Input
Amino acid sequence: MNINKTQNGDKTVFTLSGRLDTTTAPKLQETLIPEFDTAKQIELNFSELAYVSSAGLRVLLMGEKAAKAKGASLTLVNVSDEIMEVFEMTGFAEILNVE
Amino acid sequence: MITVKNMRKSFGEHDVIKGITTTIEKGEIITIIGPSGTGKSTFLRALNMLDPPTDGVVEFEGKNLTDKKTDINEIRKKMGMVFQSFNLFAHMSVLDNLCVGQTKLLGIPRAEAEETARELLATVGLSEKADAYPDQLSGGQKQRVAIARCLSMKPDIMLFDEPTSALDPTMVGEVTAVIKRLAQSGMTMAIVTHEMEFARNVSTRILYMDEGGIYEEGPPDVIFVNPKREKTRAFIHRIKSYRYTITSEGFDFIEMMNNLILFCETNALSKAGAYKAQLIVEELANLMPKSEPADLTFSFPENQSLFTVTAEYGGEARDILANDEMEAIMVKSGTESVTHEYESGRNRLTVTWKPNQKI
Ligand SMILES: Nc1ncnc2c1ncn2[C@@H]1O[C@H](COP(=O)(O)OP(=O)(O)O)[C@@H](O)[C@H]1O
Ligand SMILES: [Mg+2]
Output
């Protein structure tokens, strides 16, 4: 998985490509969580992300909690149908902010 | 009738048979099935010492065939063998083919041998071909003559090595019909074949050979309907399957997933189908205890009507999905069935789903 960070005004955008799974989830965790120390608006662009497993969901949940704790926002955009199904079946569709 | 103990057979470094222990009782009809190159022919040839085993014992009617003092030629008369290629004497008529063994090896007078030969030709439906030469016969007819010739030696057991494999499909039936009739007459037989319908109908017991031995055996209704072990299932159902063995905590996750992704692509799985298979394999791989080797198998029949992931792992009886952790939820959602079994120290968890089910 590749993570590409860009700044769009006040918004910090991470574009993920590849697979967010057991082996790559730690990388997202290391990149994303510390970002909440400074950024107020974080967007995860899933347009090139093919796959998310429970290991990935855990990191997204940590991100959501970090955002709440710091009074910041975490938004997911361009989520594929398959990944959306995973969010729905695990109840993550309710927890995450998916646009 | 035949007892095999710890039979091993190697060709140089290549261990083909790594230990077979079994018995064949009088009147049994054993069919040996399995993928090519698993040693089925080697096993048959070792039974009658055509190519003796490297190690182990074969007893036939109480005599140890692996013992140098045993007269193998005497024994071989009692063990008929029919090969894929028909092995008839090309320069002899059908009748002579059927008489030569009787007169030369059994010392039976020509007239009596001829009488037996004609009876046997009648039983294989070839009475009118007595004076024909082998090259005037079709493949199916040649094979029926080969069977009759074998019977002319009055064997106690018949060994068949793929008797229909060299035949045009239209001729398979006439040969299997002859073998079936022989089965009904009470002849003891061991048959290697790829004709599954035939195997199912004719046999009293099926030996599925794989991994250098008898991988699974049982009555045809068990082996063909509900085989216990993964490779037997894959073979019987011509299932496409991907199998990965995890040998330690630090197993190569990326290799497992990349090969699975490739397998999904090769077999033209839908995006959702491939996603679901990968998800279930990944979550199960993380959940499975790994102190003993653990296996994950993803399989489906050619028509992709049902998908199955099986996780096999050791240790105590434990259903790794009996909790509400995220991994378990992932695996259990949108499935057709989830079952857990425990037998002789192995857990087997089977998850199935249909193509139209959500991830
Ligand atoms: N005479 C031989 N010399 C060397 N290798 C052999 C010989 N016969 C068989 N093999 C090897 O043993 C393995 C099993 O062969 P075989 O018994 O013919 O398998 P099957 O009948 O199940 O297709 C194969 O890998 C084959 O190449
Ligand atoms: Mg063979």
About this structure: The mean pLDDT of chain B is 93. The CA atoms of residues 298 and 309 of chain B lie 4 Å apart.
